[in-house]
């Protein structure tokens, strides 16, 4: 299927590895020009070089910056022809805050979580959405978490911040931008093979007094697919949400978790 987005420009955050890189790979494969943003320059450079090799005819740029800071956002948005207006696709993605017991979290911990997983995505949406609407096409995908639908106790910081973003998007996606060709959807990963999952499993293992592998095996058994997801299949879902074929989908929370969430809705 031709997704109809060849030649578009995309900004993908947290794109040097994991789910963000999976999204960037899928978009590049569709002929989308991509700007990757990540804090770690070595991993970012490796990702950019690999993508350029895989798709010689596509522009792939890297910005080593902390997207959570105003300076980092300015650096990312100044690429591809102007301050944000040139991006047709935005993939918001940031590592989640650390797990733990809410009793140990101070106000500063909550502010950091909100900055990374709610306020920064909103700032980036604000920077690009009007340009998208003027051109009559825009796709915004926020990578949140399956914990938005099924909260995980030790991920309280993430539960709170990402749910806040979800509420904001629910309203904005249904505003006048919907009639101007701009969609905003959230993509909710369950257990995928990423560093984030390994960190969470490590915390659970320590709390339970078990090995990480034992906890991982138990977690897999709780997934009807009996496995963890991989970033490539996640990226394919993201690319579809960015396609011309998904123009009638907006304000949705798309759950990719191998069937782990047992609810009907």
TrEMBL record:
PANTHER family: 3-OXOACYL-(ACYL-CARRIER-PROTEIN) REDUCTASE, NADPH-DEPENDENT REDUCTASE BACG. It is an enzyme of class 1 (oxidoreductase). It comes from Hydrogenophaga laconesensis. Keywords: Oxidoreductase. Its EC number is 1.1.1.100. The keyword NADP does not apply. This is 3-oxoacyl-[acyl-carrier protein] reductase. SUPFAM superfamilies: NAD(P)-binding Rossmann-fold domains. Belongs to the short-chain dehydrogenases/reductases (SDR) family.
């Amino acid at each position: 299927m031709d997704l109809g987005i060849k030649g578009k420009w995309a900004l993908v955050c947290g794109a040097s590895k994991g789910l963000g890189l999976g999204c960037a790979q899928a978009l590049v494969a569709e002929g989308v020009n991509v700007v990757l943003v990540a804090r770690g320059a070595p991993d970012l450079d490796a990702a950019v070089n690999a993508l350029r090799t895989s798709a010689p005819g596509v522009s792939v740029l890297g910005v080593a910056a902390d997207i959570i800071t105003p300076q980092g956002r300015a650096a990312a948005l100044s690429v591809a022809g102007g301050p944000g207006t040139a991006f047709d696709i935005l993939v918001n993605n940031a590592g989640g805050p650390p797990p733990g017991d809410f009793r140990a979290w101070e106000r500063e911990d909550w502010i950091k979580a909100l900055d990374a997983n709610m306020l920064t995505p909103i700032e980036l949406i604000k920077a690009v959405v009007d340009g998208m609407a003027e051109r009559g096409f825009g796709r915004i995908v926020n990578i949140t978490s399956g914990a938005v639908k099924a909260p995980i106790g030790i991920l309280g910081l993430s539960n709170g911040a990402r749910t806040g973003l979800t509420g904001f998007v629910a309203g904005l996606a249904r505003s006048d931008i919907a009639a101007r060709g701009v969609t905003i959807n959230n993509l909710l990963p369950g257990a995928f093979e990423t560093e984030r999952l390994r960190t969470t499993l490590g915390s659970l293992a320590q709390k339970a007094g078990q090995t990480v592998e034992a906890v991982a095996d138990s977690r897999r058994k709780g997934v009807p697919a009996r496995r963890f997801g991989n970033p490539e299949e996640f990226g394919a879902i993201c690319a579809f949400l960015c396609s011309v074929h998904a123009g009638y989908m907006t304000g949705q929370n798309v759950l990719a978790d191998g069937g782990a969430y047992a609810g009907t809705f």
